[in-house]
């Protein structure tokens, strides 16, 4: 079968791979219809390299059930599904408490287990969620990043009438803008250095936008909020700079949730750090997109709001490509070619 394998930093190859086979009684093989590039895929491609050289890459996907193990009763060939890529050990202290996102050996496909940049992918039956008829494969491939966002927002107890600041207007930030609206936020402030991304955030429901190039972010926000700050600040950029700045955006007693992953040391100036202490902020780290019962309410909720039309992802997709075009688009992203948002591969073409 056709696939994309990661061999090293900036070394991804379009190659033939062995089609997965049923080995365990709960195995399910899915024919991949759509699979997206995740921000973490870009970081591994550009900065970290693979967990295992030559592993089939990718983990955000949807498709059609091809074959199931003999113990699988909830799925059958022909079912339309999206797949949770996370694999937990089930034995550690966290897993015994059903805190799967905190599993000591948590991994995802595409790292040490073959991923979804391929014509077929295999996972346990419990990792699949059926897709409603009115959710297409493109949208369903983005249930995983949507679930990443809502997993973090659930921690904050965001409530109707809240004011929310979201740092970063990449795919995660743009999903966060929409989820904040769904949660009933009164005001949503999108923050990014790219005015084109800010325009998309505004179109998706941001009340106002802030570009750090126009002045210190906290000063601009305090002007917009008449000195109050926000109830919830979301770090969705994964930048070492914004990971410190985000503490200056909340009102006293507010919440900060980290969705982004800064690949570097975060140096927090005294001004920002004191906001945590003096404003008695609640700071949440958020990892992955899973909860109990596995894979978690994040997945069903994402599909529910995609089906209702309240969570829109089509406008985030800028490129729809074949796997053969993978090496080229990854290199374009690494070279910061403008105009590239969400990239979806169709392994069939």
Instruction: Kindly state the percentage of residues in helix.
Output: 25-40%
The CATH topology of the largest domain, please? Answer: Quinone Oxidoreductase, Chain A, domain 1
- Shape, please? globular
Helix/strand class:
alpha/beta
Distance between the termini: 12 Å
The number of distinct β-strands equals: 18
Explain what this protein looks like in three dimensions.
By secondary structure, this protein is an alpha/beta fold. It has two domains: 2-142 and 313-345, Medium-chain alcohol dehydrogenases, catalytic domain (Quinone Oxidoreductase, Chain A, domain 1), CATH 3.90.180; 146-285, 3-Layer(aba) Sandwich (Rossmann fold), CATH 3.40.50. It has helices at 39-48, 93-96, 137-140, 143-156, 171-182, 195-203, 217-224, 242-245, 270-278, 297-308, 326-334; strands at residues 2-8, 11-16, 27-36, 55-56, 60-68, 80-83, 86-87, 107-108, 120-124, 128-130, 163-167, 187-191, 208-210, 230-235, 250-258, 282-285, 317-321, 342-345. The mean pLDDT is 97.
Short description:
With 349 residues, the protein is an alpha/beta fold. The protein has 11 helices and 18 strands.
Topology summary:
Elements: E1 2-8, E2 11-16, E3 27-36, H1 39-48, E4 55-56, E5 60-68, E6 80-83, E7 86-87, H2 93-96, E8 107-108, E9 120-124, E10 128-130, H3 137-140, H4 143-156, E11 163-167, H5 171-182, E12 187-191, H6 195-203, E13 208-210, H7 217-224, E14 230-235, H8 242-245, E15 250-258, H9 270-278, E16 282-285, H10 297-308, E17 317-321, H11 326-334, E18 342-345
Parallel strand pairs: 11-12, 11-14, 12-13, 14-15, 15-16, 17-18
Antiparallel strand pairs: 1-2, 1-4, 3-5, 3-9, 3-18, 5-6, 6-10, 7-8
Helix pairs in contact: 4-5, 4-10
